[in-house]
Amino acid sequence: MITKSTNLKRKLTENLKRVRDRIASACDRGSRDPAGVGIVAVTKYVDMEVVRATIEIGLADIGESRPQQLNQRAGMLHELAERKAVLGSKDDIVRPRWHMIGHLQRNKVKMVVPWVELIHSVDSLRLAEDLHLQATKLGKTVEMMLQVNTSGERSKHGVAVGAVTHLAEHFREWPGIRLCGLMTMAPLESTPDELRLYFNRLRDVFDDLRGERFVGPEFRHLSMGMSTDFEVAVECGATLVRLGSTLFEGIAGSHEIHDESDA
């Protein structure tokens, strides 16, 4: 019997294949290995049923832009996995890897630190310090990226390009955090040439930092590219792309899909 869940997973699998094919083509143009590009599924506008199906088809990196929603969903799925484990479920228990991709206010740090695998959007020294303090209380180290405003657009979060090295050097003083890369978001109305300028600017800063003694081998990620511009980002060196609408197109349970830049 073909169930609703089966149809959902089939459609998700088809969408994911198309995305991976587009990533592979972009890698060909950029002389890269597609294995070096990870996908973060942006689930802000999809129901929990879709989130679970996404994880079950093998896309376990889940990105949320709202701390409250991340906290709630992570708690629900953790409880479900624990219940399955206790009951000895024969189903494979795939645990999601949670990514915080949206602007994070300091008063929401406690909500996300227990769950996140990676925070993409650290944009101040004070936020990084709060993350360090909270992670230390929990006996863990939070992996994070520094968000950089490579376009100079006032409406975009992120630190100025010229401040990156200074901030990154401070981060090494706090064992509760680990700097794993850089993130940027391009303005929606950017032309292809402008996108390349913004993404290549982040890549240049990234390459410069890799030569500094205060970053280690864990400094390896460039998070850039969303549904509208991820192919250009991949050509420019992205290691993580944040995709929502292009992954969940035509999926029942997806609603109000907008570009992920409103995160």
Kindly describe this structure.
The chain has about 260 residues and is of the alpha/beta class. It has one domain: TIM Barrel (Alpha-Beta Barrel), CATH 3.20.20. An eight-stranded parallel beta sheet has the order 7-6-5-4-3-2-1-8. α3 links the parallel β2 and β3. The longest helix is centred in the N-terminal third of the chain and has 26 residues.
What secondary-structure arrangement, pairings included, does this model have?
Blueprint: H1 4-29, E1 38-42, H2 48-56, E2 61-64, H3 67-86, E3 97-100, H4 109-112, E4 116-122, H5 125-137, E5 142-147, H6 164-171, E6 177-183, H7 192-210, E7 221-223, H8 230-235, E8 240-243, H9 245-248
Parallel strand pairs: 1-2, 1-8, 2-3, 3-4, 4-5, 5-6, 6-7
Tags for this entry?
263 residues; alpha/beta; TIM Barrel
Short overview:
This protein is an alpha/beta fold. The chain has one domain: Alpha-Beta Barrel (TIM Barrel), CATH 3.20.20.
Percent of residues in helices: 40-55%
Any idea what the radius of gyration is? 18 Å
Under CATH, the topology can be stated as: TIM Barrel
Q: Quote the average pLDDT.
A: 91
- The strand line-up of the biggest sheet is 7-6-5-4-3-2-1-8
Number of helices: 9
The biggest beta sheet, please?
A: 8 strands, parallel
Uncertain parts: 257-263
- Assembly state of the chains shown: single chain
Gap from first CA to last CA: 38 Å
Q: Tell me, what is the CATH class?
A: Alpha Beta
Can you name the CATH architecture?
A: Alpha-Beta Barrel
